Amino acid sequence: MKKFAPLLLLLLLIFTLTACAGNEADASGVANVAQSVAASDAVDTAVSTQQTVTATAVPVTVEYDSEDLDTNTADATATTITLAGDSITVSGEGAVADGSSVTITAAGTYDISGTLNNGQIVVETTDADPVVLVLNGVDITYATSAPIYVSNAEKVVITLAAGTENVVTDGDTYQFPDAATDEPNAAIFSNDDLTINGSGSLIVNANYNNGIDSNDDLKIIGSAITVNAVNDGIKGRDSIAVKDVTITINAGADGMQSNNDEDAEKGYIAIESGVIDITAKLDGIQAETSLLVSGGDINITTGGGSGNSSSNGGGVWGGRGTEGNPNTTTESVKGLKAGTDVTITAGTIAINSADDAIHSNGRITINGGSITMASGDDGVHADTSLEINGGEINLTQSYEGLESALITINGGTMHLIASDDGINVAGGNDGSSINGRPGQNQFSASGNYHLYINGGYIFVDAGGDGLDSNGAFDMTDGVVIVNGPTNNGNGPLDYMGTFNITGGFLVAVGSSGMAQAPSQTSTVYSLMHNFNAMQAAGTLVHIESADGRNVLTFMPTKEYQSVLIASAGLQNGETYTVYTGGSSTGTATDGLYADGTYTAGTQVADYTLTSVVTGGGTMGGFGGPGGGGRPTRP
Question: Pick from 184, 245, 321, 511: CA 20 to 30 A from residue 178's CA?
């Protein structure tokens, strides 16, 4: 959002105008430069030390031991447990049946089959070796506690036998020995390490609280699991690690949660591969520390989706739990959320969230993957830093698209749609939300703010500022296309320090009242023209050199009064003509024509570049050092 009055901006303008004309156009020039840059993700990241200050996320390493990966159910020494309605039969050692409950007291393998109407499987052993529970087609119901309860064990592995369906269901009221006891509190509950593997299927119906819950590490490998829970779906206090899974979660609270806040090396979630579908009333996947997505196909809906963002402007979304001022309460309904860092290296992710789609109270790093998001608040929000090195990001709805105190974009392809700022670099209480908004984030970081664009392809459609930095802005490479605001209280570009562009291609259109151009300290030349009146959406703007070379042919998605282009295709001393309207025989990508022949519309201005920043028209300005002078209208 703009922080300066229009009059001050007018005083910062510097323009050079001379007469010249040229109406022939061809398909060469800067549009081809934009096309070639967009086609490559191999971006030169050899930038200055100042441009690489983003902290590196703490790596998450998951080790799967032999017990985690062993799904062999053919164990001749296994104890057989047969469930028969209201009774249980045990054949072998290590387990004792008592009516409709059975207690396992020794390490080993236990093959369990049958139906239990109202009973419990309990593991209680001090043995150092693991307990393996082979679910070989079970349907277990227990009305007053956890149907499967690991009270004590070094480690328990639940193996879902191939070709079997297994169902575990609890009641909506648990009975505890005293008022101080509140566990077990899940249909499958373990006080210790728990692994679920095997190619069979498991359905968990949790009517009391959580679906699957481990107080230590929880690993799920190669299984098909459906969890329906009134509270959290899957919870591993110390960690959750999944790979090669098919998981469906319907949760009344968080879909997946790891919440150890006492050990910096715990409280993480790692998703390696598989298909995960989560519908959660609150957060989709929440990690107290780190969240790593290195593969998989993940689909998340939170809080009823992006169309269900909070209508209570006094509430605050942004932290790690239930938040708000003393008079209101708004719960966290984010897609992917972590307290320390989120890292995405691969995978296909689709998020429809009432709050931020991806959120970290610290860092976010995106190195790859395909991410599609619709958000009731921010698309991607990191309090400390956001770094994008690759991947595809398609944000179809948001309040603000990308938001952090420090944003570095080195690569990747982004399409960002935002009702306010497309990219917002801010901290503290973000000024663009000074009057409050549903989902407003309270930053944990404050200080110097910077936006670095060193590569990649970025398309922005913003109702507020297109690119907004509450500090400085540097661009060294990449392609940036901005369809900015239509109101004069915002601008296609908004920065408070300097904007130095030394490489890449930038086109930004929008309203003219607060329009800014790059700083005079840039090395790439830029040209800004502000029209006398709004141009209708879909009206071509065309800029060509005196010899007919196409510099820009662009079709904005909405009405505009200002156009800015910065490109190596602009040369000092050359004369350029600005047209509006007309037509092109080329094919547009995000409104930008890289080929075809332009048929002239209305010629509106001629400019000869004698300064690194040149422009004219009504309103608008050049920010940063080197400004001054009121423009002469064309």
Answer: 321
Domain borders along the chain are 1-55+384-428+444-571+585-634, 66-231
Phi and psi at residue 525, to the nearest 5°: -75, 150
What's phi and psi for 240, nearest 5 deg?
-130, 130
551, 574 contact by CB (below 8 A): no
The tens digit of pLDDT for each residue in 11-47 reads: 233 233 333 333 333 323 333 333 333 333 322 332 3
For β-strands 101-104 and 95-98, DSSP reports them as: antiparallel
Burial of residue 437 (CB within 10 Å: 0-12, 13-18, 19+) is buried
Neighbour tally for 616: CB within 10 Å: 22
List of residues 6+ apart from 505 with CB closer than 8 A = 30, 33, 34, 37, 478, 479, 480, 566, 567, 568
Question: Which amino acid, residue 343?
Answer: T
Of residues 442, 324, 383, 323, the one with CA closest to residue 55 = 383
DSSP annotation string for 424-455: EE--SB-GGGTT--TT--B-S--S--EEEEEE
pTM exceeds cut of 0.85: yes
- Residue 81, CA distances (Å) to 106, 112, 115, 121, 257 in order: 14, 5, 11, 10, 32
Q: Measured between alpha carbons, how far is residue 169 from residues 147, 166, 366, 407 in Å?
A: 7, 10, 38, 46
- Phi, psi for 443 (deg, rounded to 5): -70, 145
All residues at 6 or more sequence positions from 179 whose CB lies less than 8 Å from its CB, including other chains: none
Query: How far apart are alpha carbons 327 and 282 in whole angstroms?
Result: 20
DSSP-based three-state secondary structure for 36: helix
d(CA 314, CA 85): 53
Q: What is the pLDDT of residues 607-630, one digit of tens each?
A: 999 999 998 765 455 444 333 222
Residue with tokens 């690569």: 411
